[in-house]
Amino acid sequence: MSPAMSPAMSKTVVVYDQRMSFLISAGAALQKLAEGIDHSEGPVYRPEDDSVIWSDVSGNRLFRWSPQDGVSTVRSPSDYQNGNCRDLEGRIVSCSHGQRAILRLEHGGDWRVLVSRYRGNRLNSPNDLTVTRDGSIWFTDPPFGLTQPREGYSGPQEQPGSFVYRFDPATDSIEAVVKEMERPNGIAFSPDEKTLYVSDSSQVNYPQGHHYVRAYDITSHGQAANGRVFVTIEPGQPDGLKTDGAGNLFVTSADSVQVFDPVGIRLGKILVPEICSNLTFGGKDGKRLFITAGKSLYAIDLA
């Protein structure tokens, strides 16, 4: 099906391709679950208690929301945690700008540093991450925690660039799998884990910088190859990414969550009144989209 010539618009959903209508109802309502956050980021859904854990990066806090309990503080200070996800055992794995490390919340309740160095030097400030079916943690490492006010403890950059890493907790081995990007940010895999998507938001640093999502083929040896621009995002820069079960890519942007099919055709937008930073799927039936944006946490039901 080809894209529509002109978008059909509701209060929340913009449809460019009719396939968008199978993903979300045109009349779906965006619900604000929490507000008053300094810099809302990195949501992860926990099905065991129907809750969302997310970061307040510049507020240096970690929050929890659930329909039963509302909003509560999980960790303060949080060492400027950013992206969060779950590992194969359901433990929260998190990017820490402040500790310049990947952390894991152990079953006993303690936060453990999993990795903080590459080739003997400190990481920049891990930003976002995802866990693959073999338990590996793939994460991006731009220097925002070193350069952006109130996003870390600053300090010298010890790595020669901003890389995407693969870390294996079973062997404590770390490898830089993508080295050519300027400011790798959000990260996600296709459902079959054969394609890696990484957003580059270097336009936030200078006007001629990038604002696109790159795609990489994953080889049988776990290497990222054939890097290319998948989609360019406007307005603003792409940040957090997620794929659904059909391989559609959900990308946060300045005005919305933008949705693309597996070949890069834009299907539509979910409009959000604040700059979107990240997102996660959740809900008891897996059909709810949670969005961190600006100073808030939002949710919208999918079809």
Notes on the protein architecture:
With 303 residues, the chain is mainly beta. Helices cover 3% and strands 47% of the residues. It contains 2 helices and 28 strands. The protein has helices at residues 20-23, 144-147, and strands at residues 8-9, 13-15, 31-34, 40-46, 51-56, 61-66, 70-75, 81-86, 92-96, 101-105, 111-115, 117-118, 121-122, 129-131, 137-140, 164-168, 173-178, 184-189, 195-200, 212-218, 224-232, 241-243, 249-252, 256-260, 266-271, 276-282, 288-293, 296-301. It is globular. It starts with 7 loop residues before the first strand and ends with a strand.
**Could you give the distance between the termini?**
19 Å
* Number of helices, counting only DSSP H or I runs of 4 residues or more: 2
- How many β-strand runs? 28
**SSE sequence, one letter per element:** EEHEEEEEEEEEEEEEHEEEEEEEEEEEEE
Report the major sheet: 6 strands, antiparallel
Work out the helicity level.
under 10%
How many whole angstroms does the radius of gyration measure?
Answer: 18 Å
Proportion of beta-strand residues: over 45%
Mean pLDDT over all positions: 94
Unreliable spans are: 1-9
